[in-house]
Amino acid sequence: MKNFICVQCGTQFAETPAPPSGCPICQDERQFVRHEGQKWTTLAKLAADHRNRFENEGPHLLGIGTEPEFAIGQRALLLQSPSGNLLWDCVTLLDDRTAAEMEARGGIRAIAISHPHYYSSMVEWAERFNAQIFLHAQDRQWVMRDSPRIQFWEETSLPLWDSLTLVNCGGHFEGGTVLHWPAGASSKGALLTGDVIQVVQDRRYVSFMRSYPNLIPLSPAAIHRILETLGPFAFDQIYGAWWNANVLSDAKAAIERSAQRYLRAIN
Prior knowledge:
Elements: E1 5-6, H1 24-27, E2 40-41, H2 43-49, E3 51-58, E4 61-67, E5 75-79, E6 86-88, H3 96-104, E7 110-112, H4 122-129, E8 132-136, E9 150-153, E10 157-159, E11 165-168, E12 177-181, H5 184-187, E13 190-194, E14 198-199, E15 206-207, H6 220-230, E16 237-240, E17 246-247, H7 251-266
Parallel strand pairs: 6-7, 7-8, 8-9, 13-16
Antiparallel strand pairs: 1-2, 3-4, 4-5, 5-6, 10-11, 11-12, 12-13, 14-15, 16-17
């Protein structure tokens, strides 16, 4: 029995004697099955030829990304907070070196993930660090390895500790979630977004899509919902899903002007 991992999206599945017949996350219209067909690996195989890189993305914010690039290629963020560290999003590879790096920074109190493309091996991480996992209930169907450590929440927002707040703004997935960090950006506030809100090459802007690889846009209603749910929160910075994909000033205005540009384009 093994916990097989989809090579395309990096999601770890529940134990089975043989690889699953397919990956529902990749078969969904927002992702895709590899052109060579469905392929599987395991943590042991992945650790044999991959390693994690650690680099500060900002004060109290450690980036964790796998090299060579694996699956979707996102980097996770360890937000180091006085009452406990939060792992935002996740990467598949977890090895002893990575665990030691996390422990040296105070371990992981909980894991929160923006959307199913980054679920990766979240249960493996949670077991290693005795951590909770916070996922929005609207994305429950995409959990491929269940665990009592997973807490599904249903509200528009979920307060955590140290004034951290998970915010369900939808978009990319119905349960699409961002993290508001009021102590970030020298107490001007920061938003951790994965690619629910995608930081683009022109850092004055962001963008929004139902599917990035398949170029499916969001509806006007979805864009308005993102704006409405983020309205009450103050933030000056955004930390996206990739290395250095960050808006480091005027971030709330960047979302507002980007949304208006997007709405003009699709209309």
